[in-house]
């Protein structure tokens, strides 16, 4: 009974809930409909307002566009009118131009016809002239009894005779003028070559000594019975000895300048490294030898490139580099050869010769001096052999052989090399001595003079070209002084090697000096003193 009642009550509750829910839903639907109608009305009003604004704006834009189109149409109408006017004017110009062309064509035809007539007239005139020439030749041949070929030959013979006469006169005049002004012209060419050719370079002397910085380094070099110095001598083939007068001066004795340079660089490197032992000595000597060999090659290449000598064998360029460490009369042979090459090149240019060939011959003219310490023979003979070995031009070989007059020159370039060599060696300041040789020569001159009896003092002046001797007049009379001067001259000539001439001047002067006014006991001195008091 109770479960059935409960079920009925449940259904009744559900039905009531459904009814209540339907009423609530109906109210919400009605409210939503009203809200939708209000929203729709609002939006329709807004859309209507916006539509009206857009329509007004479109009307205004359409009016403005229409106005712009009208203005463009008016402008185009004006342009069209202007174009039509120009077209009419151009048509008129073309019509006038066509008329002028027609007129020019008519005149051209008239001129063409006139030229044809003139051409025909000229042709007839030339034919008539040719006929006159033929008639004249016939008359001349008839009256002179000579034909044309004979007359032509006579004219040629007369002309040749006249030209030969004028040539002889001109040649004689030029020969006399050249002989008269030859020396002046040659001087001008040489001066021009010297001014345009070489450039002065700092004089480079090959050092024959090394200055040791202190006594400690000297003792280390001389330690172990001078084994370090003897090792350097063995590795380099030179002789090393310290100067007996200058404690720290080490002399390098050798005739080979390359070896001398290797030893000098090795010793300087040893002094800088402060490691004087057998292993370091061998290392520094090897490094110095490699550096010197590399420098020889680089120097040769730089010289050939700077002088524009053309292609040259690499070994020959290395031999050129050896000249850097060779001197002759105090003049660096490499710089001397460069100078000779430059002067010869300028002279060859002035004379219209091959300037490159002249420079090449000038650069190689003393090439034999690079090896004359190692191979027997004069530097000329050795230079010729080197040039022939490396297949140099015969003109270059002859220039090397003839630059000291050993053989006859076969070309003007050989003569130019001799001239350039003389200019380079004779110009002021070209040849000099090293500092050591210069000082030694001055000391030797004064030493010979001071060793003579009765000499008070002596002075070597003018770079060793004159020695002045002051004698004691009480020990030597005039005759003895003259004999002493001759003795000094003979001893200098016998013992010393000297360039040029050396003047020996002896001075003997006896002077007696007395002073006046310094004797206080003199009567006049006392009288003047009393007057002053």
From TrEMBL:
<comment type="function">
    <text>Endoribonuclease that initiates mRNA decay.</text>
</comment>
<feature type="domain" description="HD">
    <location>
        <begin position="333"/>
        <end position="426"/>
    </location>
</feature>
<keyword id="KW-0694">RNA-binding</keyword>
<dbReference type="InterPro" id="IPR022711">
    <property type="entry name" value="RNase_Y_N"/>
</dbReference>
<dbReference type="Pfam" id="PF12072">
    <property type="entry name" value="RNase_Y_N"/>
</dbReference>
<dbReference type="InterPro" id="IPR017705">
    <property type="entry name" value="Ribonuclease_Y"/>
</dbReference>
<protein>
    <recommendedName>
        <fullName>Ribonuclease Y</fullName>
        <ecNumber>3.1.-.-</ecNumber>
    </recommendedName>
</protein>
<dbReference type="InterPro" id="IPR003607">
    <property type="entry name" value="HD/PDEase_dom"/>
</dbReference>
<dbReference type="InterPro" id="IPR006674">
    <property type="entry name" value="HD_domain"/>
</dbReference>
<dbReference type="InterPro" id="IPR051094">
    <property type="entry name" value="Diverse_Catalytic_Enzymes"/>
</dbReference>
<comment type="similarity">
    <text>Belongs to the RNase Y family.</text>
</comment>
<keyword id="KW-0255">Endonuclease</keyword>
<keyword id="KW-0540">Nuclease</keyword>
<dbReference type="Pfam" id="PF01966">
    <property type="entry name" value="HD"/>
</dbReference>
<keyword id="KW-0378">Hydrolase</keyword>
<dbReference type="InterPro" id="IPR006675">
    <property type="entry name" value="HDIG_dom"/>
</dbReference>
